Amino acid sequence: MNIKDINKLIESAKKARLNAYTPYSKFKVGAAILLKNGKIVTGANIENVSFGLTNCAERTAIFKLISEGYDPKEVIGFSVIGQTKEPISPCGACRQVMSEFFSKDLEVVLANLDGKYLVTTLKDLLPYSFEEIEDER
Ligand code: THU
Prior knowledge:
Elements (H helix, E strand, L loop, with lengths): L2 H15 L11 E7 L4 E5 L12 H11 L7 E8 L9 H10 L5 E5 L5 E5 H4 L12
Parallel strand pairs: 3-4
Antiparallel strand pairs: 1-2, 1-3, 4-5
Bound molecules: tetrahydrodeoxyuridine (THU).
């Protein structure tokens, strides 16, 4: 991705973050997915009084992407933003869900609200991911 795409992803995630539903943690997170044609799909975290039912921003964005019929092969970038000292890092569950749909080389932008960000890849976020199941023996 070029710097323009990176900035577009960060700004989109930042905007989506404002829609987070976080009455319990008060910790808002936004995510954005960039497709080859420039289209952006966003997500925010959505909590529940039964805490374990919380959906992270990253998974909200991915589930929207898939349920709205976009082709995950067209995805060229992913971003996540939250108010952390260092750029926020996605939880293990979200990394696994990302690896279900995206290439290992997908560029992932981790950002915070102070303008700090880093660009990494899905491969670096989830090495040795669980990928295949075998037939019953
Ligand atoms: N959260 C995300 O949405 N994404 C992350 O990468 C880390 C954590 C959410 C889940 C919960 O609503 C809140 O942040 C605190 O963990």
